[in-house]
Amino acid sequence: MTADIELARIDGGTVAMHDARRKLRWSVELEPFEIGVYPVTQEQLAELLGETATHPRRPATGVSWLRAIRFCNAASEWEGLDPAYTFDGEDVAWHVDADGFRLPTEAEWEFACRAGSTTPHYGPLDEIAWTAADGVTAPQDVGGKLPNLNGLFDTLGNVWEWCWDLLDPARYDEYRVFRGGGFADDAWSVRASVRRGGAPRMHHEDVGFRVARGGFEATDAAQGWSAAADRERAAVDAPLPPGWTPRR
């Protein structure tokens, strides 16, 4: 690749997580991992997946969660790394011991974004994030605002970023999480703790992604995520409340 993926090493640590619907709070102990300094750009997507890069340095958007997963595998294969994912139709399995590129878990994303801060933003929002206050009508070139203390740019604002985790499988079935807020969002949505999500095939002009790396000696569980916890969260012992997405 001519546009290499630049990664930052994030030392292990603890991050506090929150599930508003279930009114739960818990802490996740993270092992060291790597994460992209920038969101994946149009140029990088074009080189690996054959997309058109009309604005090479802008974040790649209109990318579904499934497309982001395929980018990760393509980047791994290009670099001679073990792909992190296998497919069974549209069902994706994460092989947590693989050293290839992957999406960050929600806990990894929030820990990397916060960079030690405990407030909603890691700096003055107008200096670190593209938001509705800037009056822009599209994503901006990556790196145009100040980074956090981990050296990461655009974790808040510019575009939302897909993570590996399910949003709320009891309510939204297969929806996956995206985090961070985008260029069209007001300050309330551009916070380190805000969770949104969409279906794996969904694509939108303000949703992109950044990659992570790090393999772990485990099966179906790593960095705050586990398949067993997903199954537990999906279990509903009563009729769904009005307005909930019907599960298949």
TrEMBL record:
- Name the Gene Ontology molecular function terms of this record: formylglycine-generating oxidase activity
Reading the lineage from the top rank, the first entry is Bacteria
InterPro entries given in the database record? CTDL_fold, Sulfatase_Mod_Factor_Kinase, SUMF_dom, SUMF_sf
Tell me the Pfam families matching this sequence. FGE-sulfatase
Residues forming the Sulfatase-modifying factor enzyme-like domain are 10-213
Q: What is the protein name stated in its UniProt record? A: SUMF1/EgtB/PvdO family nonheme iron enzyme
